[in-house]
Design brief:
There is one protein chain. The protein folds into 2 domains: 1-42; 44-89. With 89 residues, the protein is mainly α. It has helices spanning 2-9, 14-21, 23-41, 45-84.
């Protein structure tokens, strides 16, 4: 039952596992922060506001995609488990 307890309590977070253990991700995140700071420094206040709105909307879309990918992955895992179980179960 440990898996379901962790799932219910929010202790399972695959995205966090990917971001904390992937050197390529860490490198790209640093690059993104650098370019983001440079871009913001070159923009007017009005342009910055548009950029922030764009980022917020992009973040919303990314969250939707990640949630759906996780949901579909769980469904695929359940189907895979069904096929691996012996037919007499």
């Amino acid at each position: 039952m440990k898996f379901f307890e962790e799932l219910f309590s929010g202790q399972l977070h695959p995205i966090g596992d990917v971001t904390s253990n992937n050197p390529e991700y860490k490198l790209k995140a640093k690059e993104l922060a650098l370019y983001s700071a440079r871009l913001e420094g070159a923009l007017t206040e009005e342009q910055k506001e548009l950029l922030w709105q764009y980022r917020d909307t992009h973040s919303d879309i990314t969250n939707i995609l990640q949630t759906e990918a996780y949901r579909i992955g769980v469904i695929h895992g359940m189907k895979m488990k069904e096929e691996l179980e012996p037919p007499d179960r």
